[in-house]
Write a structure and sequence with these properties.
This protein has helices at residues 9-29, 33-42, 51-67, 124-138, 163-172, 186-202, 226-235, 253-258, 272-285, 302-320, and strands spanning 2-3, 70-82, 85-91, 143-149, 153-160, 210-216, 239-245, 266-269, 289-300. It is of the alpha/beta class and 329 residues long. The strands form 2 sheets. The protein has a 6-stranded mixed beta sheet with strand order 5-4-3-6-7-8, sandwiched between helices. The chain has a 3-stranded antiparallel beta sheet with strand order 1-2-9.
Length: 329
């Protein structure tokens, strides 16, 4: 507890001292002569009979404390999560079912394994989903969403801190989700992410720290111009990381070059290890911040001492009704 009006002590203390001196003078010099004879015959007074005086002193003391403005200083530490808004944009074209290796590259020699062991080279889709799931697990302080595309783009999950549900959505999507679509509309995927982030800004939500992570294994062959969508993202202040999953030489080269203008990077991955390294690098490059704001709020407490003072005065009045507590002077 602290006091906001300590300067009142300079006035209250002299007045209290003056009050005590006057009371002492009145009792010992102006008192009735019968009091002295009564004291000689009765002897020393019982300390209990001093209770009214004690209650008066307490009432004055509590009022003085209330006058000083007592407050409870509540310190509130508000932690603002400065995490990022990340949108994973995933290509669901049929070619994502192929093994994660470039055409013409010999597959790695399989290790000795028993029957039923998983294939040595996972499909692009499986490798991407495993790496993305691990990335989501490491980004507990960020709001992450999911967009999938083939001919068209679809928002599967808006950016959310509920990563458990997001992981469920990620496990459910595969190339069969958009089996009736066969093109690779990278511009549509990036455009959908841009549209979502623009919508969140219009709703008055936080607009800083917007990141797009794009996965694709082919060249854009349908829909909007991806380079224009990348430029739109740059103008609106969001970064794009493009992970080319076993791209053929020269494929999507314009997109790969343009993402650098946003502050992002292009990763050329040809095996699961490269994919893991790319996601790990993004994890280190993109860090959210946590800001602690300290708020001090003063809760007034003077009413407590006012109530105590009134209680003391009320008790003093009740005692005054008992003859033994009536002062003779």
């Amino acid at each position: 507890m602290t006091f906001q009006n300590l300067h009142w002590l300079w006035l209250a203390v002299p007045l209290l001292l003056l009050f005590v001196v006057l009371r002492f003078w009145r009792r010992h010099f102006w008192g009735h002569s019968l009091v002295e004879h009564a004291v000689e015959r009765l002897g020393v007074l019982n300390p209990v009979l001093r209770l009214p005086t004690l209650l008066e002193a307490l009432a004055v003391g509590f009022l003085l404390v209330a006058l000083l403005g007592p407050v409870y200083p509540f310190v509130l530490n508000r932690i603002e999560r400065g995490g990022l808004q990340i949108m994973i944009v995933l290509d669901l074209s049929q070619s994502m079912e192929e093994g994660l290796q470039r055409r013409g590259t010999p597959p790695p020699r399989p290790a000795q394994a028993g029957p039923g062991a998983p294939p040595a080279t996972p499909s692009k889709m499986v490798a991407v989903k495993v790496s993305a799931a691990e990335f989501i697990r490491k980004r507990s302080g960020d709001a992450i969403g999911l967009v999938v595309f083939s001919n068209n783009a679809y928002l599967v999950s808006p950016s959310t801190f509920d990563h458990d549900n997001l992981q469920d959505y990620l496990r459910m999507v595969n190339v069969q989700t958009l089996v009736n679509e066969g093109f690779t509309a990278i511009g549509e995927g990036v455009g959908m992410a841009n549209t979502f982030f623009r919508f969140t800004r219009e709703q008055g939500l936080r607009s800083k720290g917007e990141v797009i992570i794009l996965f694709s294994d082919g060249d854009n062959n349908y829909g909007r111009d991806p380079v224009k969508e990348v430029e739109q993202a740059r103008q609106e202040g969001r970064r794009i990381y493009f992970i080319g999953v076993a791209l053929e030489p020269g494929a999507s080269q314009q997109i790969a070059d343009s993402v650098y203008t946003t502050g992002g990077r292009y990763f050329d991955v040809s095996n699961p290890r490269h994919l893991e390294d790319a996601m790990e690098e993004i994890n280190h490059l993109e860090k959210g911040r946590f800001v602690t704001i300290q708020l001090i709020r003063h809760q007034p407490a003077y009413f407590i001492f006012v109530m105590l003072s009134l209680a003391c005065l009320a008790a003093r009045l009740l005692l005054n009704a008992i003859p033994h507590f009536v002062e003779l002077s």
